[in-house]
Amino acid sequence: MGASTLPGLLLLSDDAKRVDLWIQRGVVPSCVVQLSGWAGVVPVGPAQAEPPYDDALTVLANAPVPMTMRNALGFFQIGGRAVMVVHSRKWRALPRWLVWEPEHGLVRVNLPQGRPSDLVRAAGVVDDEAKTISGILKHGGGTPLDVLSDVIEALGLPGGPLLRGQRVKDSDDAMLIEPNRRAVGRFNRVVRAERDGGS
Prior knowledge:
Structural class: alpha+beta
Order of helices and strands: EHEEHEEEEHHHEH
Strand content: 15-25%
Strand order of the largest sheet: 7-6-5-4-1-3-2-8
Largest sheet: 8 strands, antiparallel
Number of domains: 1
Shape: globular
Radius of gyration: 16 Å
């Protein structure tokens, strides 16, 4: 990956080629790589949308994930916090959020609240790991990237080093995918219409 990446990783249960098409229909330029059992998406900012939707990390963290690409798990450092989002394969399931803050550990936010067991189920590991994840998120020590890396490792998921912009052997075939200009134009028109209609 020659491009400079941002501290975020979205793992999708799908083939990287289909994920490429999904990225093209969005607004966040991203590196896409096939990892063991997952397609990894690492944002390369900024998003190609008008403010306030130009924050690539926030936009990708909030992106609706198609049912065919779930289970999906997102790991992001946003505003000094470790933000984790779980997209379950269940029909009409809302994304579940876990947010960790330095000195506080896991905090409640005004979003559908996730639990460590949600991470465990989506990752497909044994339920016993929920205790390990709870232990990591309970304490407020460390940095958001340390916490995200520890959670990814505890879940046995690939791609943890990509959060820090590092390359791993599995990511040598990473491709930078740019959003389609028409998709970006449509997104910006909708944003403008909502903004103008609301003022």
